[in-house]
Amino acid sequence: MDALDKSDQDILSEQDSAVLEDVVWKKLDRWVLPMCTALYLISFFDRSNIGNARVAGMQTALNITNYQYTVALTLTYVPYIAMELPSNLILKRVGPNLMLPVMVTLWGIVATMQGLITSYTGLLLCRFFLGLAEGGLFPGLVLYLSSFYPRERLQIRITAFFASASLTGAFSGLLAAAIMDMDGVGGKAGWAWIFILEGLLTFVFGIFSFFVLPRSPETARFLSPEERCYVVLKLKGSSAISDDDKKDSFSWMEVLRAIRSPQLLMLCVIVFFGGTLLFGLAFFEPTIVAGLGYAGNKAQLMSVPPFVLAFIASVISALVSDRYGCRGLMVIFFGIWCIIGFSMFYATTSRHVQYASLFFSVTGAYASAPAAITWVANNSAPHIRRASSIAFAFVASNSGGILATWLLGSLSPAPEYTSATITFIVMSIGLVVVPSLNLFYLSRENRAKAETRLSMSKHDEPEHLGDRSAWFVYSL
Prior knowledge:
19 helices; mainly alpha; disordered N terminus
């Protein structure tokens, strides 16, 4: 931490901490958060716009079956999942200011190439390399933000860029409807222009991000030395980073400690359920809406409103969760929304009621996800254990995405999606039951830690305990 020498800390001691508290987070919210939000927004555009392209005629133009379409979606997840852990483990060493922009730029090129394909083989190749280039982004962004914001301030920031996924669902429908009017321009179909224009936007933004993203709070040019010192001290005070940088060095033992953690195992089950619901709706909601009797641009436009509600609910719930520290309760609350939504879709044949059910299911799936991911980041320390935990959680989430593509793609016939809907109802119930079990476990662990703190001093505690330390209080 070269930027923070003793003189910096002497200066800090003379500052009014209330003034710094008001200034530093606003600066980070102006410089770091918008970039993270934009990166995730365009990543979700490029991964999920295949659903809009399908409605716009891609499947017919390439002459592929539902089964082949599902295989193409699945192929995206294989390298995507494979990249999540290794990319998170090397993110700090390489530098997120370099690694994240490289990912964005590379997948922008691949995303654009999807608009030039003329065969099923071309689609498979593009989806594979898209997953390979993009796989480390979301876990990397969560890990990156956790090194800038204290634990109690993290969910609203993760929600800010995660809620952009729900905006993607809204804007992708509107944008696709507009781009479809370019059908025939340059000899390209409307669905091809969806890929080309959105991919080019990603490429340009990837180049731009090289010049904007800071490596860490200690090197952020927009912060003064006093402000850098204040941020680091707040991060250490909330156990977001370790007191000693050596504790954050790489160790395979920390990777193993992460995967052996009971609370992480339960959280992986939670995000697997949530990932199945979320990615199923992200990829297939336009198709589901089209199956309710809407067609063409009307289907694209009618897919928008549920995502708008999901965005609003995500932001409000994050504010409540950060204010009262209730990660688990937020997951449970929106798990109930998912139960209501999928039950409505299953129990009726009314197209109007089934459309209304999407407001519950889409909102529940999208609003529960930031709370679950923040729960993972909040309760893992030191750095390598947190990096591993976040990566394992996303492996579980994207494994759910693979299941969702098969459930809705070929195993459960449209437009009823009976088998998929029953599975989603069961998983929604799981989003209530498993978080309740994790809350019970973490509450019991916090009580045991409180008793330990009464009987010993921190100096008597063994080193390298990380989140197992009696002085690390789990977020509930």
